[in-house]
Amino acid sequence: MKQRNWIIIGLLLALTWQLAQAKEYPVATLEEFNTTVPRLTSGDVIVLKNGVWNNVELLFSGKGSPEAPITLRAETPGKVSIEGKSNLKLSGEHLRVEGLIFRNGYTPSSSVIEFRNKNEVANNCIVSNCVIEDFNNPDKSRNDFWIQINGTNNRVEYCSLTGKTNKGMTLTVRLDSLTSTETNHHIYRNYFGKREPLGENGGETIQIGLSQTSHLNGWTKVEENFFEQCDGELEII
Predict the structure, then answer these.
(1) Are 227 and 190 contacting, i.e. CB atoms less than 8 angstroms apart?
(2) Distance separating alpha carbons of residues 61 and 94, to the nearest angstrom
(3) Based on C-alpha coordinates, what's the Rg of the chain?
(4) For the sheet containing 45-48, what is the strand order?
(5) DSSP β-bridge partners for residue 38
(6) What DSSP element (H or E) covers 13?
(7) Could you tell me which residues come within 8 angstroms of residue 96 by beta carbon, excluding any fewer than 6 positions away?
(8) Can you say whether the dihedral through the CA atoms of 105, 106, 109, 112 is positive or negative?
(9) Mean pLDDT split into 10-residue runs, the chain, 237 residues
(10) Can you give the pLDDT at residue 176?
């Protein structure tokens, strides 16, 4: 029992030291963001300063820990607006994104928020309290996703996704291979707002996996979300 207590005390001391070393980095430009991200370690926070971030492709990568994730957040929730041709890609472990708004633009790539950058996926990461609103390619036939979840053990929570008009799922879960189908993602308490009929296939609000993996277990949990006028097509999920 004494040995166990000492182990617990040691772990608590290590966590306390880790949090004490954590730093907060406010950034005001894409250049500052790109310079800061490689320096981030467990517990660090990178803060996007209030205002409009126009035509930015944010690559957020790093390796945090379960007790001390690396966080990307708005200086003030609701006052950081990501506009123009912009997107966000996550890769690494134990990352957290909070309080961003995407509006007045569209993604120049296949997704607005993607849990992958090239061949490196994101695992054990959280996107929370973010908004994607009317962030549409003017060409309705162009296919893109608003949120693409890759990797394993990721979570999308308390987000608002409303007003998608062009082709492509609002949120999609992609399996990285047929040998890694147990994703264990959690899509929790999000608001999925109005989506007008697309008139063809590809207007699902949520898609989990593809036809070729439909017979496999994915272990993605969709829980306590609110769907309002999600009429992109017959399939909501």
Answers:
(1) no
(2) 10
(3) 19
(4) 24-27, 45-48, 70-74, 95-98, 126-128, 155-157, 186-188, 221-223
(5) none
(6) helix 2-21
(7) 64, 69, 70, 71, 72, 73, 125, 126, 127, 128
(8) positive
(9) 53 48 94 98 98 98 98 97 98 98 98 96 98 97 97 97 97 78 92 96 92 81 97 94
(10) 72
Query: Cα separations (Å) of 49 from 44, 74, 156?
Result: 16, 7, 23
The one-letter code for the residue type at 135 is: F
Neighbours of 164 (CB within 10 A): 29
CA atoms within 13 A on the CB side of 171: 27
Distances (CA, A) of 159 to 46, 59, 118: 20, 20, 25
Please name the residue that has the structure tokens 């617990």. Answer: 8
Q: How many CA atoms lie within 13 A of 86 on its CB side?
A: 19
pLDDT tens per residue, range 68-102: 999 999 999 999 999 999 999 999 999 999 999 99
The closest alpha carbon to 44, from 66, 72, 17, belongs to 72
- pTM comes to 0.90
Own/partner pairs for 76-84, CB < 8 Å, 24+ apart? 76/50, 77/129, 79/50, 79/51, 80/48, 80/49, 80/50, 80/51, 80/53, 81/51, 81/52, 81/53, 82/53, 82/56, 82/58, 83/52, 83/53, 83/54, 83/55, 84/54, 84/55, 84/56
Containing H/E element for 171?
strand 171-173
User: What pLDDT score does 17 carry?
Assistant: 46
DSSP tally for the chain: helices H, then strands E: 2, 23
